[in-house]
Each structure stands twice: as structure tokens, then as C-alpha cells.
Amino acid sequence: MQIGFIGVGNMGGPMAQNLLRAGHKVTVYDLAPAAVAALVAAGGVKAASPAAAAAARDVVVTMLPAGRQVREIYLGPKGILAAAAAGTLFIDCSTIDVATAREVAAAADAAGLAMLDAPVSGGVGGASAGTLTFMVGGSDAAFARAQALLETMGKTIVHAGGAGNGQAAKICNNMVLGVSMIAVCEAFVLAEKLGLDHQKLFDISAKSSGQCWSLTSYCPVPGPVPASPANRDYQAGFAVAMMLKDLRLAQEAAKTAGAAAPMGAEAAALYAAFAEAGNAPRDFSAIITMIRERSGQA
Ligand code: NAD
Fold first, then answer.
1. 3 and 25 in contact (C-beta within 8 Å)?
2. How many whole angstroms separate alpha carbon 57 and alpha carbon 123?
3. Which residue from 15, 64, 71, 98 has its CB within 8 A of the most atoms of ligand 1, so it is best to mutate?
């Protein structure tokens, strides 16, 4: 297939590499010359503008930082919807707010073009290995057209419903993750205060009702889960800045939709304080260090 790929950073770069490896022709655009050069070295073609990357393609994939860039690239006067040939399928894999995702999808629909929101989980490791999870919003027909291509970049592809529902699934999931990580950190710090060994708490909770992914796959203390970032000084992994972005998107959506999410709000406030203290690039499980400080421990 002829594919346009816009935004080839930490995630988009390896995703586009996997499309090249699968034999597709990939034309890339990014503001960062080094990101483009890496794809050109792997057999991609450089486009001079987003519109040039999108014109005459079967599929256009975007992987951009936030809703602002997505809106600008899709809807602007020199935007990719205006440049696209009839029949082009757009897949936005960025994590953005639900309202923008629905607005851009409606604009695509009005132009007679198919569009999916397809945010991912799995991080840079999953992007490189082609094992991402895609949470997809959009029509059945567009999903059917995208499925094989998404399987080139991911392992689990879930159709979550109509436009914006991929983004909705992503922020709901990450709100659970942010809240549960803080709860697990609080439990370990309380255990330290009570003289209960990390490994003992892990062994018991992993088999009890406190079991969750933050504990058993991403344990915030070194030892029980050797692959977790706690064992490498909280090198990300999934950065505090990213978790804060997703928790804020969840709060924004909760406000707009009229859903009460007080634990999500508290998690967003705690991650904001932690980021402001200079921890934005660290792994999000490092928030245990702030819980310890607040408990009067170093
Ligand atoms: P990144 O900053 O590494 O990549 C974004 C790329 O977009 C950069 O190369 C940047 O130059 C480019 N860009 C920005 N504005 C542009 C514009 N106007 N025109 C063209 N290119 C532009 O970020 P990333 O880590 O690849 O994340 C991308 C998206 O994926 C974000 O929405 C993020 O929330 C989401 N995400 C990231 C991870 C992760 O672990 N990194 C995991 C899941 C989801």
C-alpha cells in the first residue's frame, strides 16, 4: 500500500519502520529532520509538507503529541483532509482529547473520507516489537479496512465503537492505571512504616484482592518484579509527563461528560505536583518517592 506517515517520533518512528518492513511504501513528514532521516535510511520517502505526505495515498497514519497538532494538520487550509484523494483512510494514533477526535472525524466524514482514532498502549518497546494494543473508534467499514495494517504494528486490535471511542477507552484505562499506581505506592510506604517486608506484601497482595497490574507487572519497589522501572532507578518506561497528560485528558472528558471522577482528580493533582518538582521525565512509578517524602522518609 501507499502510506503517508506524519509524526515519526519515539512511537511513530518504529511504527513506520514496521510498515516498511512489511513491504509498504511509506512517505513521511515530521518537523524534526533527524526523525525523517532515520526513516529515509530505512527505505521511506521524505515529503515536504503534511499535504504532500497525504496526497495520493491509500492510508495516512498520524502520531502527533496532542490535539492541537492533530487539529492543525487535519483541518488547516493546507491540511491533509483537503489534500487527500477520495477513498483515503486516515488513522490517528495520537493520544488526544475525545472532543477533538470527534470533531476531526466529523470533518473527515463531511469530506467523504474515512477516519479512525486508534490510540495505542505498549510504549516504545511495543512500537518497536510490533506488539502494541490499538483501541479503535470509527465505523465498522473503516475498521475492517484498517485491521490488517494495524496488525502489522500491533498484537491486540480492539474496535471500541464509534468516533472518539478509542480515545475514550485509552483515557479510562489510564485513569485506572494512575490511581492504582498511587494506591500501590501508598501501600508499600505504609508497609515500610509498619515493618512489613516489600516481598512479603507483594507475595500476599499478588494473591489477594489488592492484586492489580501496577503491583504485579510494574511493581514500584525494586525486587519483586525484576523488569519493573524501580529496578533501574525509575528510568521511563512511561514518563510522569505522559501519565499527567492522560489524567488531565480524563478530567477534561469527565467534566464535559458530567462524570464524577474524584480519585482521578486527586491522581492528576499528585502527578502534577510530582512533575513540577522536576520529575516529569522519570517513570510514573517513581511517585513512590514523593509518598515517602510526605511520610517523613527519605
Ligand atoms: P514524540 O514527541 O517522540 O513524537 C511526536 C513527533 O511529532 C515528533 O517527532 C515531532 O517532531 C512531531 N511533530 C510535532 N508537531 C508536528 C507537526 N505540527 N507536524 C509534523 N510533525 C510534528 O512523542 P511520542 O512519544 O512518539 O508520542 C506520540 C503520541 O503517542 C502522543 O500522543 C503520546 O501521548 C502517545 N503515546 C506515547 C507513548 C510512549 O510511551 N511514548 C505510549 C502511548 C501513547
1. yes
2. 27
3. 64
pLDDT in tens, the chain (298 residues): 999 999 999 899 999 999 999 999 999 999 999 999 999 999 999 999 999 999 999 999 999 999 999 999 999 889 999 999 999 999 999 999 999 999 999 999 999 999 999 999 988 889 999 999 999 999 999 999 999 999 999 999 999 999 999 999 999 999 999 999 999 999 999 999 999 999 999 999 999 999 999 999 999 999 999 999 999 999 988 899 999 999 999 999 999 999 999 999 999 999 999 999 999 999 999 999 999 999 997 6
Domain boundaries, the chain: 2-162, 168-294
CATH tag for 168-294 (out of 3.30.590.20, 2.30.40.10, 1.10.1040.10, 1.20.58.220): 1.10.1040.10
Cβ-contact 264, 244 below 8 angstroms: no
Q: Is 97 in the pocket of ligand 1 (CB under 6 A)?
A: no
35 lines ligand 1 (CB under 6 A): yes
Strands 25-29 and 2-6: parallel
Verify whether residue 78 is a known catalytic residue: no
Indicate whether residue 95 lines ligand 1 (CB < 6 A).
Answer: yes
| CATH superfamily assigned to domain 2-162 | NAD(P)-binding Rossmann-like Domain (3.40.50.720)
